[in-house]
Amino acid sequence: MKLADLDIIVTAPPPPGWGGRYWILVKVTTDTGITGWGECYAASVGPEAMRAVIEDVFARHMQGESPENIELMFRRAYSSGFTQRPDLTVMGAFSGLEIACWDIMGKARGRPVWAMLGGRMNADVRCYTYLYPLPHHDMSAFWISPEMSAESAAEAVSRGYTAIKFDPAGPYTMHGGHMPAMSDIARSAAFCAAIRDAVGDRADLLFGTHGQFTAAGAIRLGHALEPYSPLWFEEPVPPDDVPAMARVAQAVRIPIATGERLTTKAEFAPLLAQGAAEILQPALGRSGGIWETRKIAALAEAHGAQLAPHLYAGPVEWAANLHLASAIPNLLMAETIESPFHDALIKGAIRVNSGHVHLSDAPGLGIEVDEDLARAHPYHGDGLHLEMRDAPCDYANGNQFEGGAPAPKR
Q1: Is the dihedral angle over the CA atoms 134, 370, 98, 300 positive or is it negative?
Q2: Euclidean distance between the first and final Cα of the chain, in Å?
Q3: What pLDDT score was predicted for residue 407?
Q4: Which ranges carry the Mandelate racemase/muconate lactonizing enzyme C-terminal domain (predicted)?
Q5: CA of 266: how far to CAs of 24, 87, 269, 292, in Å?
Q6: How far apart (Å, rounded) are the C-alpha atoms in residues 197 and 193?
């Protein structure tokens, strides 16, 4: 059995677009007719440029190879161009293709992916959700309203979630780390207070930031959040500044979580070695795929750290995340997105029940992708999957970050 053909579908989730502006799905077919699905979570170039990268990685390193030879194909892609170092775009392309290989292997054997990773360690995977506006909320006002977020949190907890994430701490800008505005610190504390009051001890608070602060700024913010006992302080400084992350970890009494923008064990290992994070958040469509992330999980286990696979993408990456999560001993939880488009795209094959997912014994990833639906929503925009803004932090007029789905501009 050899990898023979590749098809790439760039699909755009309808408004409000939970999960990003577009998702890059890959369909790999063997010479025996078995099809596997993967998803590439890489967004530093546009989708058409990414399509060319995926095609090149497949043709150069994978086409004609057995889908079983994961390690060989990884080493080819990782070493490509005389590098042998992490390359976010190349490894993002490889990650989605590698996920498809596991789907193929599982289908060929009639076994789920989790069974090929050491078996089922976690019968039920604990999931968390980002806080999204409820139907009656104003889409623009929601992101700066502690009261609306508290209402959304209570609704999520009523559905069984035991962990909820939110990120009111100000803008993600191209300027890199900055000192938070006092208004952002005050708003962040107000969010924590309102949400903690709404959910009590029924759920963990997951405080999201995305690398926008200096170490000193993150420490100031972290101290303001400590009274509300968040379970984690997510990526408080730029993810490649491991010494700064370690300084924050030493100064703030909230566990540090990071990893959605990192790829391969080469980028995760220094975090563990320097005590910079206790919770790793790999996104399997970027981190190197299922096998490489299984290695990352083993490194974390040896350092007493846990994994919480990240999801701001489509349901194919979600499926891969969940299969890994089902198989590892040091799982904390896995991010999930419940939207009609996510559900329809995989025909309801995976569902959250009382804040948990139980994967079936269905072969491969256990999903069937609705190709017609995916192709019926092509991406026509010119924005990237996610973008940082050009303007710096506004210390005079305040800041507003509208999550992953900005309100429509009138």
Answers
A1: positive
A2: 53
A3: 47
A4: 146-255
A5: 25, 11, 6, 10
A6: 6
* Cβ–Cβ under 8 Å, residues 8 and 24: yes
CB-based contact 39:57 (threshold 8 Å): no
**Spatial contact of 364 and 106, defined as CB atoms under 8 Å apart:** yes
Which residue reads 């900055």 in tokens?
178
- pLDDT at position 404, please? 54
- Please count the residues of the chain: 410
Per-residue DSSP letter, 181 = P
Supply the pLDDT for residue 50.
97
Distance separating alpha carbons of residues 248 and 253, to the nearest angstrom: 9
| Whether pLDDT at 330 is above 60 | yes
Structural domain spans, the chain: 3-110, 115-365
- Confidence (pLDDT) at 223: 98
Name residues whose C-beta falls within 8 Å of residue 312's C-beta, 6 or more positions apart in sequence. 19, 20, 41, 260, 283, 335, 337, 386, 404
Query: In percent, how much of the chain has pLDDT > 90?
Result: 91
Residues pairing with 232 in the sheet:
206
Report residue 235 as tokens: 């990526």
State yes or no: pLDDT of 405 exceeds 70.
no
- CATH T-level topology, domain 3-110: Enolase-like; domain 1 (3.30.390)
One-letter amino acid at 304 equals G
- CATH class for the domain made up of 115-365: alpha beta
Structure tokens at 377: 């929503």
